[in-house]
Amino acid sequence: MWWDDEDADYIRSRSDRYPGALNIEPEWTLDYSPGAGFVLTVIVDPVDLAGITAWKARGVDLCSYLEGEAVNDD
To answer: Of the residues 9, 12, 13, 47, which has the fewest C-beta atoms closer than 10 A?
Structure first.
């Protein structure tokens, strides 16, 4: 997985668009959240594996992860 500069800048500046949102460092998405300290939802282009967007997981995404149902296509 990789991030182009525009999409990396986009997730780094989430709080500019969404008050109270956390800014996400692209590196956090590469090690599956331990660096972030919380679970991330990451959207990836299935063709070239480029990161599109990412955010702090909540709701169904977080519940699925915690229940061991998260999809990992490694």
So the answer is: 47
